[in-house]
Structures are given as structure tokens and as C-alpha cells.
Model the fold of this input.
Amino acid sequence: MAEFILVHGTFAKHAPWTLEGSALRTSIIDVIGQIGMACQFTPLPWGGRNRGTDRLAAAASIASHVTTAIAKNNDEKIFLIGHSHGGSAIAYFIKNYPQLAVHVTGVAFLSTPFVATRLRPQWRLFLRSLLVSAAVFLVILAFGGATVFGMYSLNMLYNMEIHLSAWIIPAGVMLGLFLHILAGEKLRNDWSTTSNVSFQ
Done:
């Protein structure tokens, strides 16, 4: 007996290819029948949302199905087929449950994006640049506010107070953005949140 676990992609809980009578299932039945083996299909429902937590939950569900299949027949041929991020869920299963993955006979990925996100070592420097830019902006803003307040208190330069307050705040914003961009340029070649990964 061969069992095919079918994992749909993002936002496709009832994907046609996973249903009885689909071209994919019909073709598999024909090929498996040629070698004298019976097969069954298990469409795996999962949240289908485009979030890592959903794909991890789907990987755990795959692990549960594989565990059940092994318990019924340790010699059963298990195949996993995943489309789009359904394939990502399978990849997470292979990575996170290696003791179960060894019982899988084969895997097919259909248009699956193999990407992962992670923080680079320079994230602390990047965060520090943001904090420094914010601190500089707040200092300039506070200084500008104190200056305007002082002019009010002393009745000095009455006609210029609006012009000064309108100038100081944008100047603080521009300086903060300049420092942020300057720090970002230094990290441009090193900072990246997306990289290719492979699952063994």
C-alpha cells in the first residue's frame, strides 16, 4: 500500500488537485496500478494563511499523519506532495521531524518557494541607529519647544515665534532621517532579511 499525503497551498483549502477524480490523483492511481500496488490519498487540511506559524502547525499535522501511518504498517510507502507553501510545510516537517522523515519514501514540491527569514548579526547596530536617530530628534524637538516657550515668556521676537517653531521641528525630522539613512547606507551590503535555504 502506498499513501499519498496531499498538502494544499496558501488560501486553497479545497484545492481541486487534492480532490477525488483530479488529473493528478488519476495519473498516480494509473502509475501505481501498473506495478501492482494499491494506493490511498490523504488531503491534509491546514490553516492556509501566509504565516510561518501556520506552516509550522501544518508540519506538526504532517508529523501526526506520518506517525499514524507508521503505526498501522511500518512498511507502508509514504509520499508527500505539496503545492506552494504546502511544500514549505513539508520542508518544515523534514527539518523539524527527522526521525519521522526517514520513513517517507518520496516528496514532490509543486511551485514551492524555498526561502526563510532571519536576523543578520548586524541587527543590533541597525536598531542602535534607529534609537540614536529618535533620541537626536527628541532632543532637537525639546530644544525647539523650550526656545519657543522662552520667547513666549520673555515676549521676545513675538513676530518670529511661529516662523521659528515651524522651522525647528522639520529640521529635527530631517536630521533624524539623515542620520538614519547614513547608518542604513553602512549596513546596506550586510543587512538582509531573506536568504535561500535548503533542507537536507
